[in-house]
Every structure is written in C-alpha cells, then in structure tokens.
Amino acid sequence: MTGQAFVTLATNDSYAKGAMVLGVCLRNHETSRNLAVLIGDDVSQPCRSVLSQIFDEVCEVSVLDSGDAARLAMMKRPELGVTFTKLHCWSLTHYSKCVFMDADTLVLCNIDELFEREELSAAPDPGWPDCFNTGVFVFQPSKETYSRLLNACKEHGSFDGGDQGVLNSYFSDWATADIAKHLPFIYNLSSVSIYTYLPAFRHFGRSAKVIHFLGEKKPWDYEHVGDDDGEDEECSSESEQCRSSSQYPDYVQQWWSVFKSSVLPLLPEEHAHPLSDTPSVEQESVYVEAARMEECVHLPAPQTSSQDRKQKWEQGDADYLGEDSFTHIERKLDSFLK
Ligand code: UDP
Ligand code: GLC
Ligand code: MN
C-alpha cells in the first residue's frame, strides 16, 4: 500500500532516535504501509542516514514554531512550540491517507487497521478527554487543509501553544460528531494514565497496542535501563503485549531493548548515546537523573523523602520514569497484597 503511510516528526537528534525506534517497531510488526519521517534542519547527517535506512521517505521541512511562550509555560513545556511543524504532514499529498505518530511512541503490534479510519480519528487526551491527543491520529493529506491549518495558526494561534490546540480547534466536532473517529485508548496509551488510573491499566493494559511516553522525560533521556530478568524483550511481531500476559511490562525498558538491538548498531559511535546532542546544563541534570534512575531500577529505596514525593505527586509532578515508576508502584502494591 504505497498510497498510505505512517508519518512521524523529528526536529532534532534526540527525537530522531525516538523516530528510529518507532520506525523499527512498525517494520518489526510487518506494516504494509510506507514509513515517512519529517525532519528539521537540526537533524545531523549521521542521524539522517540511519533514518533513511529505516524509513521509505525522509522529508526535510521548515521548522514552524508557535513562539507562544505564555501558553507553553502553562504546560511547563517551553520546547513544544516547534510541534507546529507537525502540520506539514498535510502537505504529503502523494499519500491518500496517513497515520501520524509522535516520535515518543512505542508500537507493540501491527496497527495497520488504523487505516480503515477516516480523518480526523484520534484517541482522547488523558488530561482533557473532550480533546483528542495528537500523539496518534489518522489524517488525509490535502493542500487545502494544510493552508487552512496554517491560516488558523496565524489568525488564532493555539490554545496550548502547540499543534494539539490548533488541531482540536480546527477539528472541533471530534468530541461529538462521530464515535468512529474516537480511537480506543489502547492506540495511544499515555504512560501518565498508568499512574492516574492504575486499576484501569491493570484491567485493560494488556491489550495496549501503542505506548505514548507523553511528558517531559522521554526514554532516551535516561541511561540504558538494564533488563530486569536479563532477557532482551525484542519488539517482535509476536509481542508479549499483544498476547494476554499477567506480567506488567516495563515500557521504557522495551524502548531501550529495541534501541539497543536495532538502532545502536546503525549509529556511529559519537551519536550512539541518546544524549549525545550538544550537552547543556539542562541535559547535565538529566544525566544526574539518569544515574538516579539506574539506582532506582536496581535499588528500590526512594531517594527523596516520602513527604516530598507525596507533595510532588499531588502537584501533578510525579517522576513517572524514575522514583514513581510503575515498577516501584507495583512492588509496593505487591508488598501490600502479600
Ligand atoms: N517534536 C520534535 N522536536 C521537539 C519537540 C517535539 O520533533 O523539540 C515532535 C516529536 O515528534 C514529538 C512531538 O513533536 O514526539 C510532540 O512532542 P512531545 O512528544 O515531546 O510532546 P508530548 O507528547 O510529551 O506532549
Ligand atoms: C500533547 C501531545 C503532543 C503535542 C503537544 C503540543 O501533549 O501529546 O503530541 O505535540 O501536546 O500540542
Ligand atoms: Mn508525544
């Protein structure tokens, strides 16, 4: 099906690594559709070369930035202005239909059935379920829609400073018009929901098809997370998550497993570390965090007082991939159950 494609976006080398893992997973699960990645000019040559080995099409686009510091500050995500670049995907008119996926998604099984859906199909956003989340959506490339979207950006901006605000305003009847356009949550299971509605995750989580590492910390922000049982869980076509399993998977570890086995061997040494972009003060703190995470994975003892953690949790500032990771919560629950 060359007329249809999965599309993702990476404006820099960090997100490019996410895109690589996403592309490898889609291939491992034998998609029959093309793979396309939109990149910004900050993506380095070595990363472009790896992307071109995984994707059918690597398409450089101009980076569009909302520049809306005020609204982005409300989300505590100043870096998300460039998600306006996502809108370029409507210009891919050599495809009749596409599925966009954020570069921070992990695909657990074949999801080609998404192409049976119409524009604009998407799953609810976990923070405001009358809005759709733009980490995974089905769309139809069209020059007309593309220019209307760009106009909407210019005229009204975006209520969240990123693509999700604009797209929800443009496709404003999504919540009410057609239930077929509501993708089941298992196609965009944001990691935050595991923590905000744990019983539901326990009940439905084993059917998950796509994990979305929504939020500030991404799998590539951590040093390699060691495998719990020493086995490498490949993102193979017969993934554990697509079969029923009573085990709770560690998705960050799965991301790393794919990165290690299928992406790392393609990257030249100096680009192999996921944090190899120009180091910044912020990134250094991520290194510290990564070291702490390593400890967390192997040593269950919390690093901050439980009072501080409780307060942070209540303020919505949980360390989902670190101290408040699912592995820890599960361990605690298990200890109560015992
Ligand atoms: N993105 C990018 N460069 C950036 C920020 C975002 O390429 O600096 C792209 C990437 O595809 C990413 C998507 O925009 O997955 C949305 O950003 P992110 O996933 O960080 O947002 P979240 O899902 O955490 O709200
Ligand atoms: C959301 C989405 C992401 C989008 C961002 C900015 O949280 O997960 O895909 O780019 O908001 O609107
Ligand atoms: Mn995302």
Unreliable sequence segments: 228-247, 276-302
CATH fold descriptor? Spore Coat Polysaccharide Biosynthesis Protein SpsA, Chain A
Shape: globular
**SS element count, helices:** 12
Relative strand content? 5-15%
Major beta-sheet overview: 6 strands, mixed
Instruction: Give the terminus-to-terminus CA distance.
Output: 51 Å
- What's the total number of strands? 9
Q: What share of the residues lie within helices?
A: 25-40%
Total domain count: 1
Which class in CATH terms? Alpha Beta
What CATH architecture would you give?
Alpha-Beta Complex
What does the model show?
The chain is of the alpha/beta class and 338 residues long. The chain has a single domain, classed as Alpha-Beta Complex (Spore Coat Polysaccharide Biosynthesis Protein SpsA, Chain A), CATH 3.90.550. Helix content is 36%, strand content 12%. It contains 12 helices and 9 strands. It has a 6-stranded mixed sheet with strand order 3-2-1-4-7-6, sandwiched between helices. Strand 2 (34-39), helix 2 and strand 3 (57-60) form a beta-alpha-beta unit. Helix 1 (13-28) packs parallel to helix 2 (45-54) and helix 1 crosses helix 8 (251-263). The longest helix has 18 residues, at 281-298. It is globular. The relative contact order is 0.13. Mean pLDDT is 82; it is low at 228-247 and 276-302. The structure holds uridine-5'-diphosphate, alpha-D-glucopyranose and manganese (II) ion (MN).
Write the layout of secondary structure elements.
Blueprint: E1 4-10, H1 13-28, E2 34-39, H2 45-54, E3 57-60, H3 69-74, E4 97-101, E5 105-107, E6 121-124, E7 132-139, H4 143-156, H5 163-170, E8 189-190, H6 191-196, H7 198-204, E9 210-212, H8 251-263, H9 269-272, H10 281-298, H11 306-314, H12 326-337
Parallel strand pairs: 1-2, 1-4, 2-3, 8-9
Antiparallel strand pairs: 4-7, 5-9, 6-7
Helix pairs in contact: 1-2, 1-8
The protein binds uridine-5'-diphosphate, alpha-D-glucopyranose and manganese (II) ion (MN).
